[in-house]
Amino acid sequence: MPAPIRLRELIRTIRTARTQAEEREMIQKECAAIRSSFREEDNTYRCRNVAKLLYMHMLGYPAHFGQLECLKLIASQKFTDKRIGYLGAMLLLDERQDVHLLMTNCIKNDLNHSTQYVQGVALCTLGCMGSAEMCRDLAGEVEKLLKTSNSYLRKKAALCAVHVIRKVPELMEMFLPATKNLLNEKNHGVLHTSVVLLTEMCERSPDMLAHFRKLVPQLVRILKNLIMSGYSPEHDVSGISDPFLQVRILRLLRILGKGDDDSSEAMNDILAQVATNTETSKNVGNAILYETVLTIMDIKSESGLRVLAINILGRFLLNNDKNIRYVALTSLLKTVQTDHNAVQRHRSTIVDCLKDLDVSIKRRAMELSFALVNGNNVRGMMKELLHFLDMCDPEFKADCASGIFLAAEKYAPSKRWHIDTIMKVLTTAGSYVRDDSVPNLIQLITNSVEMHSYTVQRLYKAVLDDISQQPLVQVASWCMGEYGDLLVSGQCEEEEPIHVTEDEVLDVLEGVLVSNLSSPITRGYALTAIMKLSTRFSSVNRIKRVVSIYGSSIDVELQQRAVEYNALFKKYDHMRSALLERMPIMEKTTTNGPTEILHTNGEAEPSVRDSKHPPNIPQPSSQANDLLDLLGGNDVVPVIQTELPTKPASSGGELLDLLGDLSLSGVPAPAAPISVSQPTFLLDGISSQPLFNDVAGAIPPMTAYNKNGLKIDFTFERSNSNPNVSVITIHASNLTEVDMADFVFQAAVPKTFQLQLLSPSSNVVPGLNKGTVTQVIKVLNPQKQQLRMRIKLTYTHKGSSVQDLAEVNNFPTQSWQ
């Protein structure tokens, strides 16, 4: 068989391929030749073939068939074979494949080899892809090499120890004695790897962190020697002595000094020296300064040192390198809360970054600018940010507008300034203002009673100029509806009043209604505003005509509003002035996030259950008796089906009547009648306290039924009025494509329980999981026995009637105890 081509020739051949297909053909041909050579156990050229295979693997082609050949090379006595074999093992093997365990013994032998280079490649391989099992088996050899006098092996052993600790953290203490001595080494390579090992140990173990804090003076001394040492060609990078080691030491000092006063005190001086003596003209010096700043900010450093760190970041903002400017802005954003005054000194430089061409820098500068706003600089900062809002790209406008709204609300020096700022945002940001901003602005305007005339006049002028900005038009429409009488009366004291007639105001709102630029929501605002003006203006007949026109609108929302408003004019005209009177001052609640508005309309807030369950759906009259057959025994109680009440229920008496009047004729073993003297049942006392206890989160939900695309989930709550009552809410969902109609859920329990089944929210379960049908079951369990239930499901699906029974016995313990 001819000798295979060399790796260099293969590379040259592959590079001549003009298409991907041609390259694949060359690779496949060479892979076939390599496979043939492997089958023939060709020891002469195995190393060359594996090297070519690794090159093809790096190009993205499969090379798994060379894994065992790598193991054969590792077992070879020749260093050239071992080197390629270990390289192949690192590239082709990992701990997910059992093959890697076969080389554990070879690595152990090579770690004890007489040649340092063989020991070195074995350490590299173990440190790269060693599994937890391999690390446990070979940790002793690694620890032994950490104590050797050979610096070449010690640095490799230290890095290998890092990998061992990551895989098997409990072996950390094995390396503790050897690690202490590594910092006495003069070789920079060993020092570097020892600092990496110390960092790993401190990050993974609080005990190690406390133990190694005593090494802070030694680390400070090493760092000082690096700064003060003269030119060393072996370690010099752009005029700085071993910047990689300096960065690693600074990172370790940051970990050791965090939260510890003594350690922080010991490193304050050296950090000040590094910050003042490091050359900033090259990127190497900037890297060291950045690590120094991070260390100063993380430890308990002196205030002067923190100011020095922020000044370094301020100098970074003037750097021509965009990456350095971005890093500086990000770091300042993290420190602005703790060192606000120091960051404020660089406000002008930060604001200048808003004009940067790089979008990442602009976004960071915008976020930092908002963080710098306070009561003293709000006017100047808002001026700059409004200019930025006017000039910035569309992707910034929504965030910038929201930030200005929040800052203006928090730091506004006066009501008029606040209104003017918001008007500027609405006219500048246009439709980029977020939807939640409109109700927030309406709330602000409502609460600024003395500014109503000024605000409605400014908004009226703005809408005359431009009705394309939807948030602006929505706020303006609302204000004209609420305060149109103030606009017409010309009572503005803040600026010269304008003379506006009622017809001109209505013309503007009608123009919004017919404009192609108006969204459906904006039209809704305009129609409601026109309706409100019917109690403020004398042009009632014109308003009636406009409202009646939209009673046949193709927009359902607009049509519904118009029909309701028409009804107000006709049937309920005596109520119109009371319903459309001016909105009171809106209350607001402060949450962890932005201020939220509580929209109140005078109605009582519905309970959680009321919101889930619309009016009752009529059920089959025989349902109560049919349920008695579900369990097939004499220990069954009937289901109590609620009806629509004829009068408000002030107590549980009506429910007791319902239980007493239930006809149980034909029942094999009827339940004992419930007397009034027994403990109150289910709904008793609902008027005096909330119905449900807020412990739902403590009872896990469960899936009671999942078959033929129908899924029934149970969620649980406890009744406040009676702790023996469990409230179960069923959630029926449909995973099929077709709706399930005529859905009926029935349930029965043993005679030691009492059960009441309320009406469902619907009798149609929507397909494709687009909605759920909910229904409430109340179970009285006075003896706290384990809950059992049999359910019966009836529905129509794809034209055919479906009926199914199921038994539910796996209720959570918390639901019945």
TrEMBL record:
Region span, Disordered: 591-622
Gene3D superfamilies in the cross-refs: 2.60.40.1230, Leucine-rich Repeat Variant
InterPro entries given in the database record: Adaptor_Complx_Large_Subunit (IPR050840), AP1_complex_gsu (IPR017107), ARM-like (IPR011989), ARM-type_fold (IPR016024), Clathrin/coatomer_adapt-like_N (IPR002553), Clathrin_a/b/g-adaptin_app_Ig (IPR008152), Clathrin_app_Ig-like_sf (IPR013041), GAE_dom (IPR008153)
Stretches assigned to the GAE domain: 697-812
GO cellular component, one term: AP-1 adaptor complex
Membrane topology: Peripheral membrane protein
GO terms of biological process kind: intracellular protein transport; vesicle-mediated transport
Membrane in keyword set: yes
Family: Belongs to the adaptor complexes large subunit family.
Protein name: AP-1 complex subunit gamma
Species of provenance: Paramormyrops kingsleyae
